[in-house]
Amino acid sequence: MMIEIQVASILHKKVPQSDKDLGGDMWDVPEETSVAGVLEMMKLANLPVILILNDSQGDKDTILKEDDVLKIFSAVSGG
């Protein structure tokens, strides 16, 4: 199934080069793939991230559906 993935520029550098070439922002993922599964595929699973799924806060356990839009941002802290 096809989903759209938007990755914040700072995280985009961490995605393996071969994965960056998978048709731009559209990714073909297996049915029943979770958000956590996508993070694993993108080698981002161990990083602190903020997830937005279809314009709402996302959860790593959510099962994705055709045409979902997943936005991944770096969780930034500082002071």
Structure, explained:
By secondary structure, the protein is α+β, with helices and mostly antiparallel strands. The chain has a single domain (2-74), classed as Roll (Ubiquitin-like (UB roll)), CATH 3.10.20.30. 19% of the residues lie in helices and 28% in strands. The protein contains three helices and five strands; from the N terminus they run βααβαβββ. It has helices at 9-12, 17-20, 35-41, and strands at residues 2-7, 26-28, 49-53, 56-57, 69-74. The protein has a five-stranded mixed sheet with strand order 2-1-5-3-4. The longest helix has 7 residues, at 35-41. The radius of gyration is 12 Å and the shape is globular. The mean pLDDT is 85.
List keywords for this structure.
about 80 residues, alpha+beta, Ubiquitin-like (UB roll), five-stranded mixed β-sheet, 5 strands, about 20% helix
> What do the pLDDT scores average to?
85
Q: How much helical structure, as a percent, in the residues?
A: 10-25%
Q: Radius of gyration from the CA trace?
A: 12 Å
Measure the end-to-end span.
41 Å
| Order of H and E elements | EHHEHEEE
What amount of the residues lies in strands?
25-35%
Please state the second-level CATH architecture.
Roll
The CATH superfamily appears as Beta-grasp domain
Give the CATH class.
Alpha Beta
Tally of individual domains: 1
Biggest β-sheet, characterized? 5 strands, mixed
What would you call the shape?
Answer: globular
Report the CATH topology name.
Answer: Ubiquitin-like (UB roll)
In what order do the strands lie side by side in the largest sheet? Answer: 2-1-5-3-4
Task: Determine the structural class based on helices, strands and strand pairing.
Answer: alpha+beta
Figure out the total of helices.
Answer: 3
